[in-house]
Every structure is written in C-alpha cells, then in structure tokens.
C-alpha cells in the first residue's frame, strides 16, 4: 500500500496509507487531514491542495501538466521549485512520498 | 433534553460532512450525528456529470472520507434514513424522526439538506428513460442507459446539462441540447462566454437548439421515451432524455419547524436560521451575500462546493461560540469535455466587460466591471487569471479597466489598490 508522510507548517507529522492509484490529495482528504483543502476534488480547478515535495521524491512523480504549472502560479502560499498540486500525484504500490503542507491553502 | 445529546446534522452532504469535520477541528466535544437519506457514504457530486459518467473514476474514489475517519472522530453516520419530522423546543433541542421510525435526540440542529432537481412538467414526463441527475443512483442509471443509447437529448443548457452532454459525446453518442433561453448557461455567465460555449460545443459535434419550446416527450408505445417534440412539430429522436433545468432547495423540514424560508432556508451571516439556534448551510440556504458590494443582490443562494464547504465552516464556528460574519469570494468551475470554465465573483449588475486573450484560441478570460472595479471573471482554459481575480476580490484590489485587456501581462502585475469612489 502506498504511503505518504505529511508534515504541516507547524511541524505535525502524519503518515497515512492509501490504495494504488490514489493521489496524495485523496489520501489526505479522505482522512480529514486539515493541511490540504482540495475543494474541487482533484479536477485542477482550485489550487488548494498545494504541497512541497521532498527533493529526492520529485523525480519519481507524475509529470507536471501545463495546466498544473499554471495553477501553481496562483497558490495562496507562493510556489517554490518543489511545489506540486497533490491531486496530480498518483501513487503506485510501494511508493512512500514525503510532502510538506503550506501554512495556508485559501 | 440534556446538553450532551449533541448536534444532529440532517443531510449527509458536502456541507454536512464539512460541518462535522470542522466542529471536531474546533474542539466540539459533544456527540455528532449525521443522518442521510441516501445509502451511500457521503460522496462528491461534481464528478457525477463528468469523470464518473465517462467511467474514468470508480464509486470508491468519490467518497469524502474513509470509514475510519468517522470512527476516529466519533461522528455517528446514519445512512438510508430520511428525516421526515422534527419536534423542537425553544431552546433548540428536540427529537427528529425518520421515515422508518428511528428517532434521534439532539441539543442542536443543523440542516444541510441540499436541493432536488427541478421537475419538467410536460406530457410524457413520466416515460421510462426521462432522467434527472443529482445523486449517485441517478448517475448510475444514466450511465447504464447511455451504454445502450444512440440518441441522447439533454433538456437544459446549464452546467449539469452541458457537462453531461459533453460526457455523452465523449462516449460516442449523438447528443442534442435543448435550451429554452436565447443563450447557454445564462444564469451564471455573461453573453460573451455564452456565445463562446455555443460555438465551441457545436464545433465538437453537439447539436444545440436555443429558444427551444418543448411540447411533449413522445413514447414508443411501450412506456419508453422515443423522442422530444418541439413547437412546430419537429421530433428529435431520443433513447435517453436528461433533464437539467436547475434545482429547488429542500426546505420541507425547515418549513415544518416554522423556520422562515424564501429562496431556501433563510439564514443570517452567522448561518443561523430564524429561530436563532438552528444552523443551515450549502445549497439549501438563502443567505446574505458573502461578498457584498453596490449593485449586487443583498441575499442569494449559491449552488457550489465552495459555498457548501465555507458556509459549513462558518456554521461550525457559530456552534462553538466563535461567531464570525460569513465572508468569502464565491467561485465555481465546470468541466465540459476539454473546456475548463472557472468563475470567481458574481457578475450580476456589471456595466462593462473586458475580454483578455483571443476566444479563437479557446484560452481567454472575460473580466466583469462595475463602476470601474473588477467584480467577477469567467476564465476559459485560463486558470492563471482565475486565481488572480479570486485573490484580487478577496483582498479588495482592482485592475484598471484600460489595462485588463493586455493579455501579455499577468493580471497579478496589473493589480492596484482600489481607488476610493469620488
């Protein structure tokens, strides 16, 4: 089962598991993790599932689409080089990804 | 009634689940019970007309929360029970009874009852194959029938109608949309955006009739729908008819409690109903405009995920005793095939429109102004402008009207403080 370690801006750490095919956003939202809002449910419409991905995990992730790239320009907390929208990060069996959630999503 | 009966949330909806989640986040310690009429655990509705209809996502992925979440947060989720009557005292506490006779005692009541599809009353409306799309069962029914269908007629050129029509086109169906008004999505967007969607859908093979007058649904002689007859006698063949002509807020329970209802359950800016204790949120609520300004409606009802979530948060704050006035920038999205429409603000009452970018590129924005100030935007395949205007409205900024058309410069760079009106 894929796993994600979420670290909040305040330093709270949550390790959550999901199913193959789930996104980093879906696992967070289904478990009620407050750091990811995801109003649009993953349809790339709201930019409220912004995360900072641990550098060494970046390469293995789903490639960034042009639309995600544009949406990242409008996140509440300014984008960084390791910014992604977590709804686009689909996980496979055995993945373990580390992400940090921003202080604010809206 | 003892204080520890906790809160009863009627409606296992987006607003209902958010209210329960937010209450726990805010430290609410009393029992929380959510009662829902549907048998499914609470799920997201927006994909029903889009990815779900196209078979791109499974029912499991629609769930808002895991079963574990409800258990861990001590939220009792009761499914398949429709609340039909409520006895409530002046202190706000009472007992609700479901259709099957189950009773639920509460100290505080929340109504997140949502809305139901508006019914079309014409001859033949009862024929098999005339469908509506609001919940997961509706979507499953529509999906199954689409598999066997060749000709699909969609009545209503609003969000649900156009999203479902685009989905049916993707599934290879012959699809016609009948809209009674002179333009598409007329309730939500301005004329330029309507015109664009008309052209864009037609160029993708959707047959669209505006100003359509439906006389009746014609049957095949065996109780199944076979076509839609228009004024003038034209009959459009149909194996499936989907009616998407808007929704009506579910206010029966509120009315039976004597709560004031208008275009929904009337609430104040703290999400409180007229009894001063019951809260209501989401599609069912008639509320003060959360983004008040000159020329905008003073009260409104919003049908959106964004409002369901934010108003539920506001209601939760009210319940735990940290009332704040409900303020937010309304926003909406609609994915119609490969066309992504995102809207921020409310364009009602605009007196000027600026188009950023070229409509022919299918990537542009329509910026709405009133008295020289940006009040709303429609963005087509153009999320950067959407995010910029959402921020601008939240922060009370503006883009001078003579600069907004400069699509080569990001709106972010054009934003200025609002000039005081002289």
Short description:
Chain A has three helices and five strands; from the N terminus they run ββαβααββ.
Q: How would you describe this structure in keywords?
A:
heterodimer, A: 106 residues, alpha+beta, Ubiquitin-like (UB roll), 5-stranded mixed beta sheet, 3 helices, 21% strand, B: 422 residues, alpha/beta, FAD/NAD(P)-binding domain, Enolase-like, domain 1, 5-stranded parallel beta sheet, 10 helices, 29 strands, 23% helix, 29% strand, globular
Task: Characterise this structure.
Chain A is α+β, with helices and mostly antiparallel strands and 106 residues long. In chain A, 17% of the residues lie in helices and 21% in strands. Chain A has helices at 24-30, 55-58, 66-72; strands at residues 3-7, 13-17, 50-53, 83-85, 96-100. Chain A is globular and about 30 Å long. The model of chain A has no long low-confidence stretch (mean pLDDT 94). The longest helix of chain B has 15 residues, at 305-319. In chain B, strands 3-2-1-7-20 form a 5-stranded parallel β-sheet. Chain B has a 5-stranded parallel β-sheet with strand order 9-16-10-11-12. Chain B folds into 3 domains: 3-116 and 248-319, FAD/NAD(P)-binding domain (3-Layer(bba) Sandwich); 130-245, FAD/NAD(P)-binding domain (3-Layer(bba) Sandwich), CATH 3.50.50.60; 338-417, FAD/NAD-linked reductase, C-terminal dimerisation domain (Enolase-like, domain 1). In chain B, 23% of the residues lie in helices and 29% in strands. Chain B is of the alpha/beta class. Chain B is globular, with a radius of gyration of 23 Å. Chain B has helices at 14-25, 59-62, 67-72, 136-148, 159-170, 191-203, 252-256, 305-319, 383-395, 411-414; strands spanning 7-10, 32-35, 75-78, 83-88, 94-98, 103-106, 108-111, 115-117, 130-132, 151-155, 174-178, 207-209, 214-219, 225-230, 235-237, 240-243, 247-249, 261-262, 264-266, 279-280, 285-288, 299-300, 331-336, 339-345, 352-356, 364-370, 373-380, 397-398, 416-417. At the A-B interface, helix 1 and helix 3 of A face helix 8, strand 23 and helix 9 of B.
């Amino acid at each position: 089962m894929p796993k994600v370690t979420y670290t909040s801006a305040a330093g709270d750490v949550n390790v959550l598991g999901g199913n193959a095919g789930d996104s980093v956003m879906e696992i967070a939202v289904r478990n009620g993790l407050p750091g990811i809002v995801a109003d649009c449910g993953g349809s790339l419409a709201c930019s409220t599932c912004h995360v900072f991905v641990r550098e060494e995990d970046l390469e293995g992730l789903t490639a960034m689409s042009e639309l995600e790239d544009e949406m990242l320009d409008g996140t509440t907390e300014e984008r960084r080089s390791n910014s992604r929208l977590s709804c686009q990060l689909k996980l496979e069996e055995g993945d373990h990804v580390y992400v940090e959630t921003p202080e604010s999503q809206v | 009634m003892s204080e520890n009966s906790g809160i009863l949330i009627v409606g296992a909806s987006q607003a209902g689940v958010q209210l329960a989640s937010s209450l726990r986040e805010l430290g609410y310690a009393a029992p929380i019970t959510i009662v829902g009429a549907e048998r499914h655990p609470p799920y997201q509705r927006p994909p029903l007309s889009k990815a779900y209809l196209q078979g791109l996502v499974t029912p499991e992925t629609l769930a808002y929360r895991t079963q574990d979440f409800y258990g861990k947060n001590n939220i009792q989720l009761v499914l398949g029970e429709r609340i039909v009557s409520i006895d409530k005292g002046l202190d706000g506490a009472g007992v609700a009874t479901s259709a099957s006779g189950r009773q639920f005692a509460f100290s505080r009541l929340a109504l997140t009852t949502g809305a139901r599809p508006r019914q079309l009353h014409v001859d033949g409306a009862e024929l098999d194959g005339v469908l509506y799309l609001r919940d997961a069962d509706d979507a499953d029914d529509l999906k199954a029938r689409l598999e066997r269908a060749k000709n699909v007629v969609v009545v209503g050129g609003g969000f649900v109608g156009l999203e479902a029509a685009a989905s049916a086109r993707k599934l290879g169906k012959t699809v016609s949309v009948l809209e009674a008004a002179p333009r598409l999505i007329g309730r939500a967007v301005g004329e330029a955006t309507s015109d664009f969607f008309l052209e864009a859908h037609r160029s993708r093979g959707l047959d669209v009739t505006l100003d359509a007058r439906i006389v009746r649904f014609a049957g095949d002689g065996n109780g199944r729908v076979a076509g839609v007859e228009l004024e003038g006698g034209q009959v459009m063949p149909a194996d499936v008819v989907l009616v998407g002509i808007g929704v009506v807020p579910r206010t029966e329970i509120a009315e039976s409690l004597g709560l004031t209802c208008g275009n929904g359950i009337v609430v104040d800016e703290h999400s409180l109903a007229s009894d001063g204790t019951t809260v209501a949120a989401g599609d069912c609520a008639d509320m003060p405009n959360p983004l008040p300004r000159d020329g905008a409606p003073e009260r409104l009802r919003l049908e959106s995920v964004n409002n369901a979530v934010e108003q539920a948060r506001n209601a939760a704050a009210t319940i735990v005793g940290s009332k704040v006035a409900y303020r937010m920038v309304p926003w909406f999205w609609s994915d119609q095939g490969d066309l992504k429409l995102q809207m921020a603000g409310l364009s009602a009452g605009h007196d000027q429109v600026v188009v950023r970018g070229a409509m022919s590129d299918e990537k542009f924005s329509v910026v709405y102004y009133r008295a020289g100030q940006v009040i709303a935007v429609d963005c087509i395949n153009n999320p950067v402008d959407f995010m910029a205007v959402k921020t601008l409205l939240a922060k009370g900024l503006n883009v001078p009207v003579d600069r907004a058309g400069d699509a080569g410069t990001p709106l972010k760079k054009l934003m200025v403080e609002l000039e005081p009106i002289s």
